[in-house]
Amino acid sequence: MPAMTSEVKARAPGAVYDGCMGIDTSAKLEAATKSATPHQAVPASFGQHLRTWRLRRHLSQQELAHNADLSTRHLSFLETGRAHPSRDMVLRLAARLHVPLRERNPMLTAAGFAPMYGTRTLDEPDMAAAQQSLALLLRSHEPNPSLVVDRHYNVVATNRAVDLLLQGVDPTLLQTPINVVRLSLHPLGLAPHIVNLVQWRQHILERLGEQCDTTGSPHLKALLDEVQAYPQPAAMPGPTLAHEHRGVLLPLQLRTPDGVLSFISTVTVFGTPHDVTLQELAVESFFAADEFTAQMLAQAAGRAHNP
Question: Which of 120, 257, 259, 297 is most solvent-facing, going by the fewest CB within 10 Å?
Answer without folding.
Answer: 257
